[in-house]
Amino acid sequence: MNLRRLVIWVxxxxxxxxxxxxxxxxxxxxxxxxxxxGVALTFFQMTVDSYQILPPWGVEVVAKTLxxxxxxLGVLLLVGFGLRIxxxxxxxxxxxxxxxxxxxxxxxMQINCGCFATPEPVTLKKVFEDGxxxxxxxxxxxxxxxxxxxxxxxxxxSSADKVSA
Amino acid sequence: xxxxxxxxxxxxxxxxxxxxxxxxxxxxxxxxxGAAVKSATATKPAKSSAKAGSTSTPASFAPQTxxxxxxxxxxxxxxxxxxxxxxxMETFSDFQCPACKNLYLGTNRQVMDNYVTTGKVYLVHRxxxxxxxxxxxxxxxxxRAASYIGKVEPVEEALFQxxxxxxxxxxxxxxxxxxxxAADMKKIRxxxxxxxxxxxxxxxxxxxxxxxxxxxxxxxxxxxxxxYPYAGQINYEFLKQxxxxxxxxx
Lengths: 165, 250
Description:
heterodimer, B: alpha+beta, five-stranded mixed sheet, two-stranded antiparallel sheet, 54% helix
């Protein structure tokens, strides 16, 4: 296995795991038994709003769709079918998260990150964590596009060939 | 070859970062569980709250705390609303923190008007003066003393409204004096000087640490046997939706 394919595999496993866990923890809030979905989503709304980036309708849309989108994207990334599409979407999301966290850090906003179930302040460590994940997502996506132009190591076929055929 | 080494190095760094996230999460989860257990075991039978709300002199009383639902060590003078309310909102706050000022002036006053006075929410104010704020402990002492003579609301409002002024000058005493009568100010100064109420502030700080509070304001909501910790400011409109969801639960 070449290094690019290793990066793609590691990226898929790590990012899919983090996305599925993040979505699940937003819906369950780390509680047993889990609270009602409506309670969890309205609680998450407060966190999304605290970043002071979106208007109220935008906060509602993001808070009520993001946890489900994270789980769905994580599963799709893990399955690997249409990898370049899901890798690109996940990369755009992670870069967005990184920008939001970096902005909150630079503005000294005393807010909760909202990344997972446990409350975490936005610290430099959190900025680095998000930055590293964004870099991994970008590498994975770029390599996924590059590798798609080459013959598959097992089957010998390439996605580019399929498209041109 | 060099490109390959660079990619390997970058990959290793990312793996370390991902590992640190997952490890940090596991530690935070276990610490949170520990705090919850500690909180539950600390709950003891409610002590008499007969003195709550009474006006006393420093020598005539010892500070008392009560337990309401899962929340122990509540200073009844710094708690508002019906003890039978289905939702308890416990706020850890610092008088010198700007986000706490926004939470108090922009959100909690509306919560008081719409949820606390109607018996839906029991609001507990905890003091968590951060060491980085030079005058917040003094402000907490004055506010606590004011609560024992029934003047908590005007004093807390004055401290938050004039936060920038006394933060710059350190004149907490003058800020409080402008909000109450001379007679009340004398009682407040006596209470602050006697330091009888300091253990209550120290207890709030201990509780904040037990709950892993890392920033102010932090609000912990208790409803239907579950705990919802939230750090940071809260927009009233979204808080209203959250409280309504909690209240609608059976």
